[in-house]
């Protein structure tokens, strides 16, 4: 199920124009912090906040999850949403470049996420 959870989070980010969305699988390297990081960036604090809000909305509606901890919402330079086994980092672009988390966790398995077209709504052909 973790793959599905990561996809829901990635889609929530991409729906709000998040950039460079990646997940890092920290399990093989024995991290005690979490199992996965999801990392993305946006060009403005407004966009960072919108991404965070959409993740909170989508994870609650689609996965029934609420974060254990949140940090950074007051300034939206770097927002961290901690769901226990998944920790999400939403950076304003220059801060992502500066902190370079992917390089710090270079041994982790990395997966990139791209925008997917929404599936058309199912219609009931027997209706009417």
Can you put this structure into words, describing what you see?
The chain is an alpha+beta fold and 128 residues long. The protein is built from four helices and six strands. The protein has helices at residues 2-15, 45-63, 93-99, 101-104; strands at 19-25, 36-42, 69-71, 78-82, 86-92, 109-113. The protein has a six-stranded mixed beta sheet. β3 (69-71) and β4 (78-82) form a beta hairpin. The relative contact order is 0.23.
What's the short version?
This protein has 128 residues and is an alpha+beta fold.
Fold topology:
Layout: H1 2-15, E1 19-25, E2 36-42, H2 45-63, E3 69-71, E4 78-82, E5 86-92, H3 93-99, H4 101-104, E6 109-113
Parallel strand pairs: 2-5
Antiparallel strand pairs: 1-2, 1-6, 3-4, 4-5
Helix pairs in contact: 1-2
Biggest sheet record: 6 strands, mixed
CATH class: Alpha Beta
Read across the widest sheet, the strand sequence of neighbours is 3-4-5-2-1-6
Number of domains: 1
Count of strand segments? 6
Helix content: 25-40%
Q: How many distinct helices?
A: 4
Question: What is the CATH third-level topology name?
Answer: Beta Polymerase, domain 2
Low-confidence segments, given as residue ranges, are none
Q: In sequence order, what are the helices and strands, one letter per element?
A: HEEHEEEHHE
Pairing-aware structural class of the strands and helices? alpha+beta
CATH homologous superfamily?
A: Beta Polymerase, domain 2
| Separation of the first and last Cα atoms | 37 Å
Please compute the radius of gyration using only Cα atoms.
Answer: 16 Å
Rounded average pLDDT: 91
Q: What is the subunit organization of this protein? A: single chain
What overall form do the CA principal axes indicate?
A: globular
Fraction in beta strands: 25-35%
